Amino acid sequence: MKRPFLRLLPAALALAIVLGAVTAFAAQQPCIVLKSSGAENQYTLRLDAFHSSFESVQFDIIVNRQVEAPKVEWRDDSPAHFQEVRTTSAEGKTTLTVVIDRLRPIANSGSVELADLTFSQPLPASAFSAGAEMVALDKNQDKTVYQQPALKVSGGSAGSGSGGSSGGSLGWEDAVNTVSDGRKGLSLRVGSGETVGQDLFRQAGKEGLLLTLDYGRYSWIFDTAKGVTIPAGRIYYDLSVEELDYRSLSAAVEGSDIAQLETAYTGALPCDGILSWPVGEEHAGKTVYLSYYNENETRLDYRAAVTVTSDGMAELPLSRGGRYVVSLRNVWGAVGTAAPTGPAQATPPESEAEVTVPPEDQLAEPPEPPEPEPSSSLPPEAEEDSGEGGLPGWALPLAGALVLIAGGAAVFFQVRAGKDGGYSI
Q: 65-98, pLDDT tens digit by residue?
């Protein structure tokens, strides 16, 4: 009688180990992201889970049709960087080869927006796929090659149109008229995944209305009476906000952060905006400090000091989308008058100190929590041998070892007996 499953056991164990290693490796893979920006035929290109030691990278994005070379607007267009998107076509497909070489980390905090890519035609999310590999270099030119890098495409590139509900976004007809302190306004409930058409801001601006966008847990308030600026080609705004948890941003404010935020839209806001964000009722009445994460300069730029309301909300004045930190500690020293918000993008207030954000992957791992103290008040010697009716501490391990030895002996003799009887293993 043959038992092939026993012979296959070592191979199965080896396969399990290999699969576990592959899974662990895949979890560390960087991700290429293309996100519809809300402008006509435009995607924002970013890298997520990208190690902060890398200063150079090259990868391909393949379009399943022939397209013209996109217009590229780099987020950091410093002449000190070498960065380009090469376009080649073959067999009915177009390959976009992204090449970036910098003298500092490309992604200081593990995730970075690289550029806006504007195409000459609308392209659905299904048109894109990633190339076979991504090659990254650190400052010592040590190479890391990622096979089959992940590509995530969100939304479809918006085509021409005026926005609003016809363009898949909420618009003027979806808003509700309001009156607050005698002033006319509009209120719009925005659900998960929904965007706001540019027509809502444009028409509200004509009447100088106070526009409230209610996202449930948080809300935006825009005073359109102060002017509305909509750039050409803008169709909608994605003003949803995501919470972050970067150790580097926390370290920059000496661990005093109570909120880290990133808006889905990262450009200039259409008009003056206040983001009402919950920071907790335990902070009611406290002064908190808002700062903007300047990725290009790897620093936190001071923006404003605000007082938390009685219900734990921080009313944050924002002039543009991006990443922000709310902290309990003022790490900038004396600062000037807060800059006005709005699309004019006034110079932020000067401060005494420049607050640098360290690379995320170069920070030491947080220490492991200490082991809990034993519940017994007896000394270790007493716990090992507790006296009457108790077993010494070494008894259970010894008993377990004896059981294993006995079990092993039984298996050995059973296998031996099987061989004598003609079994094959």
A: 999 999 999 999 999 999 999 999 999 999 999 9
Distance CA 309, CA 152 (A): 39
Is the CB of residue 50 less than 8 Å from the CB of residue 112? yes
Write down the pLDDT at residue 406. Answer: 58
In the chain, which segments carry CATH 2.60.40.680? 27-154
pLDDT, tens digit, 9 for 90 and up, residues 255-286: 999 999 999 999 999 998 999 999 999 999 99
3-state secondary structure string across 203-249: HHHHHCCEEEEECCCCEEEEEHHHCCCCCCCECEECCCEEECCCHHH
Q: Hey, which residues does 340 pair with through a beta bridge?
A: none
What Cα–Cα distance (Å) separates residue 244 from each residue in 154, 159, 324, 325, 334? 19, 31, 9, 9, 27
Name the CATH code of domain 27-154 (choices 2.60.40.680, 1.20.1280.290, 3.40.50.740, 3.30.200.20).
2.60.40.680
Q: Which of 168, 160, 150, 197 is nearest to 34 (CA)?
A: 150
Positive or negative, the CA dihedral 125, 73, 243, 111 is positive
Specify the pairing of strand 287-294 against strand 31-36.
unpaired
